[in-house]
Amino acid sequence: MSGEKWIIGTGFSRGIGYELAKKIKDNKYKIVHLGRGQCGFEDIFIWWDLLNPISDSPILELSKQLYGKSIVGFIYGAGVMPILGVSESNRMEKHLFWQSQSEAMRVNYFSCAEIVEDILPFIMSHNDGDIKDVPFVAHLSSLSAVDPFPGLELYGATKAACLLYFQWLSKRFAMDELTCLSIHPGTVHTDMVNNVVNSSSKDLEIVRIYKNMIEKKELMSPQASAETIYKFLFSEQAKKENAHGKLYLADKGEVYQHSK
Ligand SMILES: NC(=O)c1ccc[n+]([C@@H]2O[C@H](COP(=O)([O-])OP(=O)(O)OC[C@H]3O[C@@H](n4cnc5c(N)ncnc54)[C@H](OP(=O)(O)O)[C@@H]3O)[C@@H](O)[C@H]2O)c1
């Protein structure tokens, strides 16, 4: 074996994922990036539109690329925010609204679960003596998966679906076999938040909140967010084990607890 350690990831072209890929590269890991646009930090880029089901995606090419590699982990960093709010009377608007919910479910949940299922055999066969650490699968989740904020309920539903899938994974694999992680990054100043502010109705509470946070400079930077996520994934073993199958709040450094 070459001693190379590989990370597979999506969502590395922009936002939090881009900064995370930069950190991963700086720390000498090799990267397989699945996406629609390169970030410049990948060693292997496979063009992949996560709106497509896996049957229409280059899974065979990915399998060929993964063969024989020591894989440390998989990070599903991609995500989309669907249209927030819809006019009750305009049929065309309603149609676009529900189409956008369906696409968000595909990107935020189905594609993640499908890719994880297909690459699990490669991740689980990593233990060839080169890598001592327990491999991980992680996705960027959201607090809205467990605590739906007004306006973000349907986005939250897509994140809740993926969170539940990761909970199921954590029952299939013990934490010392495969650590299964759902990570809320915090509220981070990226295109996703800017798009909500610029393209949604000004009457929505979430738009007012984001605008206010931007004005008061209260949003995390993508760099700061990636820093905390990287630290958690690559050097905080005890915290990772504790977060197996749960929602980890990276901005607070703790696992989400349901309020009684
Ligand atoms: N920002 C926040 O405050 C916040 C809070 C909670 C959770 N999150 C979650 O954190 C993750 C990253 O968010 P972000 O704020 O960094 O978002 P972002 O800046 O909008 O970046 C989204 C990433 O997802 C990729 N992506 C979206 N649709 C795709 C598709 N069909 N095929 C391939 N890639 C696709 C984008 O690639 P393209 O360049 O190809 O579009 C981009 O790399 C998301 O899952 C988001 O839900 C963010």
TrEMBL record:
Belongs to the short-chain dehydrogenases/reductases (SDR) family. It comes from Silvanigrella aquatica. GO terms for cellular component: membrane. One of its GO terms (molecular function) is oxidoreductase activity. Coiled coil: none annotated. The keyword Cytoplasm does not apply. This is Short-chain dehydrogenase. Keywords: Oxidoreductase. It comes from the Bacteria. Transmembrane segments: none annotated. The keyword Oxidoreductase applies.
